[in-house]
Specification:
The complex is a heterodimer.
Chain A: E1 2-9, H1 13-24, E2 29-33, H2 41-44, E3 48-49, H3 56-72, E4 87-91, H4 94-109, E5 115-118, H5 119-125, E6 135-139, E7 143-144, H6 147-160, E8 168-171, E9 175-179, E10 182-185, E11 190-198, E12 213-224, E13 232-235, H7 238-243, E14 249-256, E15 261-270, H8 279-292, E16 301-311, E17 318-321, E18 327-331, H9 337-353
Parallel strand pairs in A: 1-2, 1-11, 2-8, 4-13, 11-18
Antiparallel strand pairs in A: 3-7, 4-6, 5-6, 9-10, 10-11, 12-15, 12-16, 13-14, 14-15, 17-18
Helix pairs in contact in A: 1-6, 1-9, 3-9
Chain B: E1 11-16, E2 19-24, H1 29-35, E3 41-42, E4 48-49, E5 62-65, E6 68-72, E7 83-86
Parallel strand pairs in B: 1-7
Antiparallel strand pairs in B: 1-2, 3-4, 5-6, 5-7
Classes of the chains: A alpha/beta, B mainly beta.
Chain lengths: 374, 88
Amino acid sequence: MDSYDVLILGAGIVGAACACECAAAGLRVGIIEPGVTGGAASAAGMGHLVVMDDSPAQLALSRFSRELWRDLQNQLPPQVEFEQRGTLWVAADAEEMDEVLAKHRTYGSMAAASEVLDEAALHEAEPNLRSGLAGALLVPHDAVIYPPAATAYFLASALRQNANRPAKLLRGVRPVKAADGVVTLQDGTRIAAGNIVIATGVDTTLVPWLNLQKRKGHLVITDRYPRFVHHQLVELGYLKSAHKLTEDSVAFNVQPRQNGQLLIGSSRQYGDLSSEIDPGILGKMMERAVGYLPSLQSVSVLRVWTGFRAATPDKLPVIGPTLDPSILVAMGFEGLGITNAPGAARLILSHILQQEFPIDPAPYLPSLAPVLHA
Amino acid sequence: MHDSDPLNHGHLLVVVNGRSIPMPEGSTVAAALLTANAPCRTSVAGEPRTALCGMGICFECRAVIDGVPHQRSCQIPCRDGMEVETQP
């Protein structure tokens, strides 16, 4: 039986980051991916590296992770398209402007830079936004990347570490069981590992006890319109709509890509498990975007696609060891898997090596994850 | 009666990247760009691109026409005084 120090199931951006981290620490790493590496949620999302303050634990992990990305930026190959665009949280009215001020204080308490823009400063920063908006909070260190290329970079880094104990990527094989330090593949092959990290995104086949829901999203990409917007633009109401656990919702969220294309989001739907485009919610999403950026109306759209986020009931990812001490999970990142991948990888490595944790790991422990309702 | 020489049709003046180009009536903007020896657009890698399929399918001929970006120049007839620019 082949054996590894760490066997990672799933080569999306989270699994790939875990592989990279573990290999760099000198561990012998195996990675199993039945499909396309970085081909599911990692390929469907926007690639917005963003500090989110919807809960203290989310803030701690996303801030830690975004700083890891910034530390990494000079090592990333050009195709990752890392750009420190900054996020503009756009406030539509006075009430939302109060939230801007509250958010500014929250970021300040975590030593995360942010700057309040009034109406005039916002207009100067983003002339294509409609007039009459109240202002915005600029989070200048947030960034954007192209996630599939980042996933490929993490995998390549993992594979070239440790010349004498090289990592191995097993593609096109499907694990059907993981327990007691052994992973069993569909063809009956068994592989031993001291630690098994399950990072299979929305697929809970190997961890049926984990309470994840698929939350569908739509994204639109346009032709190239360089300098149409300069920052990642998100409506401040985003948290309100992103937080709703049951209702379908849309929010204004536009990202400039390096080549001038625009990514337009976002939608959130529960219960729709088909990957088909839903014209109704897509229409609402585009209306929402045009409401903020009127001249979007005349841009040329190239493509629309859908993807699924893995949502947990408390909106926090599940990272750490399980009742079976050989099994760790790194799942349930919802819309923050790209941002939080490097931080999650650090936490997983700290659990494996029983080293000091860079941030408090407690909020993400599987033992605290709300159990599946019977 | 059909005119055997299209250049005998009435002429229009189309401004391509700042240069006035006389074009026969009924010509497409893609033809004006070709006549001006100007690329329709520039690829992501900065390479020149021009009309390929000529029937609005391939989108290679996109250009800025009267200030509107990403217009398929092979599908749009020239108008007198039209301003055409290579799509950056």
